[in-house]
Design a protein that fits this description.
By secondary structure, this protein is α/β, with parallel strands linked by helices. The protein folds into 2 domains: 191 residues, MetI-like (MetI-like fold), CATH 1.10.3720; 275 residues, P-loop containing nucleotide triphosphate hydrolases (Rossmann fold, 3-Layer(aba) Sandwich).
Length: 596
């Protein structure tokens, strides 16, 4: 039993690494930033780094290969290629920055405004974007260059305006996907203005798509700027530019192929670096948003294996011992699930109960090898159907997943493929598990829908997931899970996304399936009402550890652990009208004195 004092030990919080450091710690990000920094510094200090005037000709040293005197050789006029490459980089990068600034401000600004405010704002901005995208971009760019007499600042600003349309469309879609989130609504209720909500809550969540789009556009801007110079519309000769150098190399391609290598490699590597940087930044930011909340214990550089040497219960359909799951941050491993073990008997429903972040879902996902990125099992053994499994070996769990161990997910729509009808998805599962012909698979799919009490199952078979309600989608998910006749059912808060009436119906379905088929059920929930309604036993978890495991009657009547008593007492239904709603810590303090 976990000591009482350890229940409320301080929560471990790790200081996040700066984004730039996280990028540098990834090999591709380090290479991309390294190349871009090298190009920028070389362009800034071109005069100091180059030993030759980039426009000075030496007709006695034309078309020379690399040597100690000229590290990258000379061109058709005897000019030093390295010197011209360094000085030409400044013009290219300046143009990229100008185009990127215009595209970023216009694209992100219009996209955020259209997605956040919608209605008239969305329609007006949408029309503007459509006009920009329908214009003949190349012709407009050439006209601008002609009118403004090869002014590259105006030309690259025009490129930014043209490119802002695609960026705005992507940003708008990203904002639309989060505009209705609860945290946005909560921010409005607290009185924050639209500008504050956009800056504090909207932009941080969509920074990933923005960075990816800007990096793609930066690579495109390098290509466009090079193309303009290649056509002779950029810096006039003999002023160096990467595009101009590529053009000069094309004239000598028959007798001096080397001339194309330095300038071509510089352009290609710079474009590649922008793309890699965008991908790496996107991955880093996605990890920061989706990383599991580390509410476990900091356990140093390594985590000791759990006490998984305890004997299994050979009568149980599933016996778990010593499951420990960790995540690693800043060189420190934090136990998200710590030495978890339990037994589930045939026909029994075991509830995993605890606060959000207590490790309930992770503990169940580990049984089928579906842990999220950034987490791993360091120890844990499972006896299932008479065979022992090492939970660190996820490959050994693949034959169990979806066959002998079924999974019902919290969000019903996320578990169904929107591109296929419900009937085709169920029939595919039936074919994978023994149904020979298409007719037999369809018959079994229809039978599965009828068993979960879906009215007019034949019509539902022809529908797509978006055409049914959330409750019906969850019934379809249950039907699909039960088709392979699993021996144990994992249900991860299957009623959270449903209204109260539908919740009761779904719980009845799970109870009926458990009793009728004789299978066991592991139910993940934080709802005591659900536990009392359907579970035979319950296991209380806190910060990844098991605090109490008891029959339902004993757990509700005589909870043995202080935390369990506090968890049961922190119930809004028992709070006095007009008083502050009780929390677990409030109840714990009132019952036992100040928490350690």
């Amino acid at each position: 039993m976990t000591s009482v004092a350890s229940v409320f030990e301080p929560e471990v919080r790790h200081r996040r690494q700066p984004v730039i450091l996280s990028v540098l710690l990834r090999p591709l990000g380090f290479i991309a930033i390294g190349w871009l920094v090298l190009i920028v510094l070389a362009s800034i200090f071109a005069d100091q780094l180059s030993a030759y005037d980039p426009v000075r000709q030496n007709l006695l040293a034309i078309k020379q290969l690399p040597s100690m005197q000229h590290p990258l050789g000379t061109d058709a006029f005897g000019r030093d290629i390295l010197s011209r490459l360094l000085h030409g980089g400044a013009a290219t990068l300046t143009g990229v920055v100008q185009a990127l600034a215009v595209a970023g401000v216009l694209g992100v600004g219009m996209g955020v405004l259209a997605g956040y405010f919608g209605r008239k704002t969305d329609r007006v901005i949408g029309m503007i974007l459509e006009i920009i995208m329908t214009l003949p971009n190349i012709i407009i760019l050439l006209v601008i260059i002609t009118i403004f007499n090869r002014n590259m600042t105006v030309a690259m600003a025009t490129v930014g305006v043209i490119g802002s349309a695609n960026i705005a469309r992507v940003v708008r879609a990203a904002v639309l996907s989060i505009r209705g989130e609860l945290y946005i609504e909560a921010a409005r209720i607290t009185g924050l203005g639209d500008a504050q909500i956009i800056l504090r809550h909207v932009l941080p969540r969509i920074i990933g798509p923005i960075i990816v789009q800007l990096s793609i556009f930066a690579a495109l801007a390098v290509l466009i700027q090079t193309g303009i110079s290649f056509l002779g519309l950029g810096a006039p000769p003999p002023q160096p530019s990467w595009g101009g150098m590529i053009y000069e190399a094309s004239l000598a391609i028959n007798d001096f192929q080397w001339l194309l290598v330095p300038s071509g490699a510089a352009v290609a590597l710079t474009i590649l670096a922008f793309g890699l940087l965008g991908d790496t930044l996107r991955d880093v930011l996605a990890d920061r948003w989706s990383a599991p909340v580390a509410k476990g214990r900091a356990v140093g550089a390594t985590v000791a294996p759990g006490r998984d040497s305890e004997p299994f219960d050979r009568n149980a359909v599933l016996s778990l011992r010593g499951l420990t799951i960790v995540t690693r941050k800043n060189g420190v491993e934090t136990a998200l699930v710590d030495d978890l073990g339990y037994d589930i008997q045939p026909g029994q429903t075991l509830g995993l109960v605890g606060e959000s972040g207590s490790g309930k879902t992770l503990g169940s996902l580990a049984l089928i090898g579906l842990l999220p990125a950034g987490t791993r099992v360091v120890s844990g053994r499972m006896l299932f159907d008479g065979r022992e499994y090492d939970l660190r070996d996820t490959a050994s769990l693949t034959p169990l997943r979806g066959r002998q161990i079924g999974m019902i997910f919290q969000e019903p729509m996320a578990a169904l493929d929107p591109c296929f009808t419900i009937g085709s998805q169920l029939a595919e599962v039936a074919r994978m598990h023994g149904a020979g012909s298409g007719a037999e698979a369809r018959r079994r799919a229809l039978e599965a829908l009828e068993q979960v009490q879906i009215p007019d199952a034949e019509a539902v078979m022809r529908k797509y997931p978006h055409q049914v309600s959330g409750g019906m989608a969850q019934r379809v998910g249950i039907a699909r899970t039960l088709l392979p006749q699993p021996k144990i059912l994992l249900a991860d808060e299957p009623t959270t996304a449903l209204d109260v009436t539908v919740q009761a119906e779904i719980l009845d379905l799970i109870r009926h399936a458990t009793e009728q088929r004789g299978m066991a059920t592991l139910l993940v929930t934080h709802d005591w009402g659900v536990v009392a309604d359907i579970c035979d036993r319950a296991l209380v978890m806190f910060r990844g550890r098991k605090l109490e495991d008891a029959d339902i009657e004993d757990l509700f009547a005589r909870p043995s652990h202080r935390y369990t008593r506090a968890l049961l007492a922190a119930n809004p239904h028992g709070a006095a009208v007009g008083s502050r709603l009780p929390t677990i810590r409030d109840t714990f303090n009132a019952m036992e004195g100040a928490a350690p």
